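To assess whether the prediction recovers the assembly geometry, we first specified each molecular entity separately, as shown.
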Amino acid sequence: MFTPLLDALLFFTVTTPLVNLLTQKGASKKLVSGYASFGLALALLLLPIFYMEGFTQGKVTTPLLDFSVPPIGMCLEIDALGLFMALTFLIIGLIVSIYSFRNIEPNQGLIGYNTLLLGMITGMVGVVLAGDLFTLFIFWEIMCVSSYALVAFRKEEWAPVEAGYKYLIMSAAGTATLLFAMSFLYGLTGTLNIAYLSESFAQSEGTVWMYLTLTLIIAGFGLQAGMAPLHMWLPDAHSVAPSPISAVLSGAMVKTAAYGLIRVLMFVFPLMHGAWGITLAIFAIFTMFTGNLMALLQDDVKRLLAFSTIANMGYIMLGLSIGSLRGLTGSLFHILNHAIVKSLLFLSVGSFVYRTNTRSLKELAGIGRSMPISSGLFAIGLIALAGIPPLNFFWSELTIVTACLEADMLPFSVLMILNLALSAAYCLRMIQTIFLREATSISKKATESPKIMLIATIILVSLSIVIGFYPSPFQDVAGNAAEAAFNRQAYIDAVFRE
Amino acid sequence: MIRLLIALEIMLNAANLNFIAFSSYGVFGFTHPLAHAFTIISIGIGGCIIALGLAIILHAYRHYGTLDVRELRRLKE
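The predicted structure of the complete assembly is given in tokenized form:
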């Protein structure tokens, strides 16, 4: 129907409940989790098989054009930028689904869980491969609706229900804002195809309506990305969701919003960079400070990590706001690194919660002695998050700061370096609490986490270390994706050629 | 809490109405099909969001015993 990649993901999403029907008739409960993981692994395999050229030569392909013709029909458009994001999401999704073999106990409704997880990943991949805003909106909603349900998944407790409600109201309001912005884009041009929009706005200077649309777009995507004045839902939703879901939300889902900003701002409004660049940079700085300062005050580990996600979205938005190739490369590289490290941290915290049933940093003090392997992996993640050189965060943060300096934005880079110091402070505080403090009664009782959880976490740690020591190939891939974002002509030609 | 959902529905409807208004704006006597297709799908999606919201409200009512959204402040403490 769409492309082999999306077809496979949709197929597995729809058939997971059917497989669960089998398990109720006596087959192993692991089958459902295994089935979901298999689906994601298959999708991860299909990606390089079909789209290798998109990665290496920046080829833009547009499936679906045979029977639905733009500017009216829906279409997908696959370029290096979308593929880069899709690859990140699929890696995180696969690892999280492997991890979920144990974390969600079978009696808690495994059907819903795996179906919704697959639905969320499908939505995210669909968003990044969409060629028009119509398709993008539909997949966006698939992603959002699945995530609302997943945040409120443990409905027997009050906290997930409250966070889920808050998240639903705020995020749906953001979506309505986006829809409103899309209606204005449609009113201005008569199409929603990104290539056609890009072509129509190629010469036009900013009118009042375009500025209004731009504001609505930044607000709508910014809400989902956790931009500072609109970030209130993020720490609640990310901290009370089941840990693997927090990993997907924090590691991958906020990145779709960053992708949306990149796609719309770079392709539809490139001429108005003077207006959105500085606005976004100021919001980015505000976001960083909110995230880092609030993270310093937290006792709940997952809430702390959620605030750190807000801060990192600030770095990513700053890289985008510079509007240079190096800045965008830094942003995209940071998206990859942050996805890996933040899901690693959430998964390790998930194994602490699995054994001790608490998220409080005070009660988890000294757990390094009773769960040495998980805590060791957690500490490696924290060192990466603090931006200490041999690990991956350092390289992307360095790229963003240098790009900032190149663009003569000295105050912004100074503020970002200040923020990096703040984030190092809370990371080191957590390492100190976990390893050096006196063990509490709760952390003494804990035992090492199950093997399957450790395997999932170790894959992420090794990715983080490999990127840390050999950053250049990964940086090149991010650079290709950034070049694709600047190469608007190729994107437009791919649609017009047909 | 339910009024918040109603407000959400109004926001979505405003955007849908905007699409429909723009669809017959360009050429006199001609309506553009894209906006109609989009609006129908968007109404369906809006229905999904509201249904899920009501389901969450049901569970919230079981925990809090009220429909007052100002009572949902425990996470801030």
